[in-house]
Design goal:
The protein has one domain. It is 76% helix and 0% strand. The radius of gyration is 20 Å and the shape is globular. With 267 residues, the chain is mostly helical. The two termini are 39 Å apart.
């Protein structure tokens, strides 16, 4: 137990140092950093006003009121931002494969998967994440009575959504090792998750079923907000956790397979 605690503490320290280095690089140009943050804020504001514009023309979307849509919108942005904050190094992974830096990673006394995922978190996304959490808090005040069990289930389903996102990012890393293709794959993931910007109920079958169980965008983006509003069944919750656990296990197996078939830049 003590060894595990020491190992966990070691990786926290390593992650912190990687993040500090990435932050120093990001703020090398303060003007560029400010413009980048403003761009992220404007993107969020424009999307929010787009939701308000939709409700100026209609009273509901797929049966959801404006209050419910605000929760869905905020939840989508939180789940979309957390992976960008934590696993930003996945976006840089192709370069590490092509220039041989991944060979150097494999020689280090730490998990290469940890380095490939947590090699430097994006501090800009942390700012956005804090603002989203503040907005969600005021959303709770605006919504009125929300049961504590729904809030707990909401948090658990957000964690499950992050696990599903983690599995997708590991799949991208595996693809990068086997084919050196990363950029298009990660952009495909981003495009697919954007379909969860609005409740999955707006899509017709069979697309709705595909986006729920085959490509679990609905489970990631819509289920947490529906759980908060008490609109998801216990069967749906169980299926969500099962899909999240299975995807993580499969992604870890494929990662081990990819490492066995990795051809280094020096070979």
């Amino acid at each position: 137990m003590v060894q595990r605690e020491n190992s966990f503490r070691k990786y926290i320290i390593i992650w912190w140092r990687f993040t500090l280095e990435a932050t120093q690089i990001a703020f090398a140009s303060r003007f560029g950093a400010i413009i980048f943050i403003i761009g992220k804020l404007l993107r969020f504001v424009f999307l929010f006003f787009f939701v308000l514009l939709l409700f100026s023309k209609t009273s509901s979307i797929a049966g959801y009121s404006l209050k419910q849509m605000i929760f869905i919108f905020l939840t989508f942005n939180i789940i979309d931002t957390i992976p960008q904050f934590l696993w930003r190094d996945v976006y840089r992974f192709r370069g590490q494969i092509v220039n041989g830096y991944f060979d150097h990673t494999l020689l280090k006394p730490m998990s290469p998967l940890f380095k490939s995922l947590f090699g430097g978190s994006d501090i800009f996304d942390l700012f956005i994440l804090i603002l989203l959490c503040i907005a969600l808090y005021f959303g709770f005040q605006y919504a009125g009575t929300i049961y504590i069990q729904n809030i707990i289930l909401y948090i658990l389903l957000i964690i499950n959504a992050c696990l599903i996102s983690l599995a997708f990012h590991i799949f991208v890393l595996c693809l990068g090792i086997l084919t050196t293709e990363v950029d298009n794959a990660i952009m495909l993931y981003r495009d697919l998750t954007q379909m969860g910007k609005f409740p999955i109920d707006i899509y017709k079958q069979p697309l709705r079923g595909i986006l729920t169980f085959v490509i679990p965008v609905g489970i990631m983006m819509t289920f947490p907000a529906k759980a908060l509003m008490g609109l998801v069944s216990i069967q749906g919750v169980i299926i969500s956790f099962l899909i999240g656990g299975v995807l993580v296990l499969i992604s870890l197996r494929i990662w081990r397979y990819s490492l066995k078939h990795y051809t280094s830049a020096s070979s």
